[in-house]
Amino acid sequence: MNQDQPVRRTVVKRQIPSRYLSTGERTVRVYLPPSYRDDLQYPVVYCQDGEDFFNFGRIATLSHERIVGEAWEPFVIVGVDVDKKVRTEEYQPGSDRHEAYLAFWMEELVPYIEANFAVRGDLRSRLLAGDSLGGAASLSIALRWPDAFNRILSLSGAYYDTSIRQIQQASDLSNLSVWMTVGLQETAYQTDHGTFNFVELNRMARRLLERKGAYIDYREKAGEHKWGFWQTELPEALGAFLGPEAHM
């Protein structure tokens, strides 16, 4: 191949059958790095709000550019789509739909990905990524299955009371690493169930997680509760886990 010819991105879609989800299946999109080989094994990033991470966060594009440029080692990205009409129930702890989502995640999603794609299954090679309530869902998964997930990328996490209680009820979290960012213009963000100060929510979650022993890499920057802010944060966030100077 001509060295000047761009290496095309590979993103495939799959429908994962589910006996837990009411729809009976869930769409995922999977980014495969250049020169992907079935006989190798790659780190894997699992994203809540998969469609948004791919389309608005451009996670596959920015990762692909850095992998092709040899700034980062190759890895796989799995974006798990969500029905926005039931997103709050599915992502926020405390409901039957959330419990069904957790069961789908560990009993169906992860086994499917590991059976069909060349990804590693150890703690250091798995990363959970989420924005807003997706951050809360990622934390819920990591708290429920600390032997399966202990690294979280959180973009303006919606750590409402149910998430705070989860942290308070947790025991030792010294094996957990969380990269957190929140925008300083997120102090009065309107949701479908109230107006929230996301800066305070993230500060509180950080304090409680650190008290439980978790390692937190935290920042507050000028930004709103939008993908325009989160997209600019993704390179630094992913680099903390997967780049040459990874420290998470």
What does this molecule look like?
This is Esterase family protein. The mean pLDDT is 95. This protein is globular. The protein has helices at residues 50-55, 59-68, 87-91, 96-116, 133-144, 161-169, 198-211, 227-242; strands at residues 10-17, 25-32, 44-47, 76-80, 126-131, 151-155, 177-183, 189-191, 194-196, 215-221. The chain has an eight-stranded mixed β-sheet, sandwiched between helices. Helix 6 (161-169) packs parallel to helix 7. The protein has eight helices and ten strands. With 248 residues, the protein is α/β, with parallel strands linked by helices. The chain has a single domain (10-242), classed as Rossmann fold (3-Layer(aba) Sandwich), CATH 3.40.50.
Key words describing this protein structure:
eight-stranded mixed β-sheet, alpha/beta, Rossmann fold, two-stranded antiparallel sheet, 8 helices, 248 residues
Q: Going across the major beta sheet, what is the strand order?
A: 1-2-4-3-5-6-7-10
CATH topology: Rossmann fold
The beta-strand count equals 10
Cα end-to-end separation:
36 Å
The gist of it:
The protein is α/β, with parallel strands linked by helices. It has eight helices and ten strands.
Indicate the topology.
Layout: E1 10-17, E2 25-32, E3 44-47, H1 50-55, H2 59-68, E4 76-80, H3 87-91, H4 96-116, E5 126-131, H5 133-144, E6 151-155, H6 161-169, E7 177-183, E8 189-191, E9 194-196, H7 198-211, E10 215-221, H8 227-242
Parallel strand pairs: 3-4, 3-5, 5-6, 6-7, 7-10
Antiparallel strand pairs: 1-2, 2-4, 8-9
Helix pairs in contact: 6-7
InterPro entries: AB_hydrolase_fold (IPR029058), Esterase-like (IPR000801), Mycobacterial_A85_antigen (IPR050583)
Protein name: Esterase family protein
